[in-house]
Amino acid sequence: MKSNTLAILILAYCILVACTRTSPNAQLVQADSLMQKFPDSALRFLQKIRPEELNSLEDRAYHALLLTEVKDKNFIQQTEDSQIRIAVQYYDSIKDIPMQAKSYYYLGCIWRDKDKHPEALKEFFKAITYSKKANDNKLTGYIYII
């Protein structure tokens, strides 16, 4: 009887863990929604979020990607790639193709800002590969315009 109860509890726990999916931090989702129309507001919003306050690696990577993206949209020249590398490494590790495309695109933008054009092209080519796999025509278009 005890073994049956224990087996049921273990099975229930496994199902619960398998079905539980963490979602990105609500503040990050809100900042992402501001990105297209109000990039200046999104920048202020993201700068208020300290990476140490973010609990999961997923949230830290998403924050790093959004912060790099919003700085690019606000025409802030970026020469430091430590933030975007957090996103690149995370999205590569989980094989999230759409996010890999964006991460490599913004890594290329940083290399472009540093006037390191061969390195920028290398990252843009990676971004094109992933954006085509993800059928992200908008991002593919951005890359071709550069």
Describe this structure in words.
The protein has 146 residues and is mainly α. It is 75% helix and 0% strand. It is built from eight helices and no strands. The chain has helices spanning 2-19, 26-34, 39-47, 57-73, 82-94, 97-113, 117-133, 137-145. Helix 3 crosses helix 4 and helix 7 runs antiparallel to helix 8. It starts with a helix and ends with a helix. Keywords: Signal, TPR repeat. TPR repeats lie at residues 101-134. Residues 1-26 form the signal peptide.
Q: Layout of SSEs?
A:
Blueprint: H1 2-19, H2 26-34, H3 39-47, H4 57-73, H5 82-94, H6 97-113, H7 117-133, H8 137-145
Helix pairs in contact: 2-3, 3-4, 4-5, 4-6, 5-6, 6-7, 7-8
Q: Which features does this protein show?
A:
146 residues, mainly alpha, Serine Threonine Protein Phosphatase 5, Tetratricopeptide repeat
* Count of structural domains: 1
Q: Main beta sheet, described?
A: none
Q: What is the C-alpha radius of gyration, as a whole number of Å? A: 19 Å
Instruction: Let me know the average pLDDT.
Output: 88
Residues in helix, %? over 70%
The separation of the N and C termini measures 68 Å
Task: Find the structural class using helix and strand composition.
Answer: mainly alpha
Beta-strand segment tally = 0
CATH homology-level superfamily = Tetratricopeptide repeat domain
> What percent of residues are in strands?
under 5%
* CATH architecture classification: Alpha Horseshoe
TPR repeats: 101-134
Signal peptide: 1-26
InterPro entries: TPR-like_helical_dom_sf, TPR_rpt
Keywords: Signal, TPR repeat
